[in-house]
Here is the input.
Amino acid sequence: MTRPGQHCGLRGVTVTLTTREAIARAAGALFEQHGYTGTSVRAVAAEAGVDPALVIRHFGSKEKLFLDTMDLQGHFGGATLGPLEELGERLVATLLGPGRDVRLSAYRAMVRATDSELVRARLLDALEEMFVGPLTPRLPGPHAELRARLIGAQVAGLLDQMALVEDPVLVSVDPDLLTRTYGAAIQALVGVPDPTGGPVS
Amino acid sequence: MTRPGQHCGLRGVTVTLTTREAIARAAGALFEQHGYTGTSVRAVAAEAGVDPALVIRHFGSKEKLFLDTMDLQGHFGGATLGPLEELGERLVATLLGPGRDVRLSAYRAMVRATDSELVRARLLDALEEMFVGPLTPRLPGPHAELRARLIGAQVAGLLDQMALVEDPVLVSVDPDLLTRTYGAAIQALVGVPDPTGGPVS
Here is the structure.
């Protein structure tokens, strides 16, 4: 439990949480653990050590609290920027790298809550910000935007099987083998600059 | 509404629904439209024109009714059997082909209900039956089972973006272009027999 005003030590640094931060931290933990429908405003308030009315005053509604605390953006930020030749492998390595469990939990909670129009819109925003925006101008060859979206679909597919279906083979296979194998499939949509100068898809 | 004993004409053929069939048909329609949590046993019973106790007597529980009526199996059955050289395109064409809306609705309802362990197990069964079982012995090259699972992940990713996130570009783009483009990405995991005789991945 991380109450407002509490001092939390992290590597010897002492920080004081505001009420808003304490609520957000409690909500993030509960949503990731129990999902959207399994988490109540009352439970978040109890976990944060505040009155439920304060949760609503700070975030407006349970739906907005969920959207404000489930941060999918940024999870693939750096991975879309490096050399295109290794984009596929870099995306998979990023998915499987540090923060993997938080990433899988956030994705799981978001996808299971997609009967909410706001949640769908947020997932679409994340797709645009993480893949379509950065990749469309960089991908050589025709239909770059479509291919950027489909790269997002491939990443979503792997998240799906690991976070939602919990495929026992994928969650336990050697991450390097998974990175090389699925990276090659993503790479098929990247296209590489033709050494003669013209782009090929 | 399709009540038991009712005569439904389909292409001039008259069929009589049993109580079980009437419940299953009503449940399928309601689950696809409103999802698992948005559909009650009472609503299914009302739609089928039977007493709610009959729903439980025939199917045991709402969860079992859901699993019995949301049929994902068979949706890709034939597509995994034809020539490997066109497997990727054939899988996408099958996904986008006749029955697409039912397929997307069933997938949507199942994935949103994956907080149920039984639903996760059913999705994993579907992956095994539709992709891992038929493809593992057919794929040339190393790590055939892993690649079969990842082909399933790619299909799930496209279903995701179309059914759950409802990506407006993917749902409206020329299906032939989508089939060629995403088919090529799936094909990267298929591998093709080496003309010299040895398998390459």
